[in-house]
Amino acid sequence: MDIFDHIKFARWLTNLLDSKWHIGPIAVGLDPFFDLIPGAQILPTGLSLYLIWIAHKLHIPKVTIVVMVFRIFFDFVLSSIPWLGFFVDMLYRSNRKNIEVIEMFINPKE
User: Fold this and answer.
1) What secondary structure does DSSP assign to 36-73, as a single string?
2) pLDDT single digits (tens) 40-88
3) Residue 44 and residue 24: Cα distance in Å, rounded?
4) Can you give the pLDDT at residue 5?
5) DSSP string of 14-26, one letter each residue
6) Phi/psi zone of residue 93: left (φ > 0), alpha (ψ -120 to 50 degrees), beta?
């Protein structure tokens, strides 16, 4: 698998975790539902780290990767709070923000 196959899979994964379905005007993925099961938020957090690996392989600047890691950490900490984490995950979408950073580096605007 080359890096672009990984990016394609990461887009699919991001959509699944952050915005696969719509509840009214809000796009919802699987990520918030993991927060309803104690300890289960570690799974989407681990999957989010896949985006960090892709960013590293693309030689994205370290300062940008640090920002991406902070987003994941922030999401993880808030997700650990019962019920609040569910609503934060529905609105914050750290994976969506991080995949947009990766796409910005592979498709820079002229």
Assistant:
1) TSTTTTHHHHHHHHHHHHHHHHTT--HHHHHHHHHHHH
2) 888 898 889 999 999 999 999 999 999 999 999 999 998 888 888 888 8
3) 24
4) 93
5) HHHHHTSEEETTE
6) left
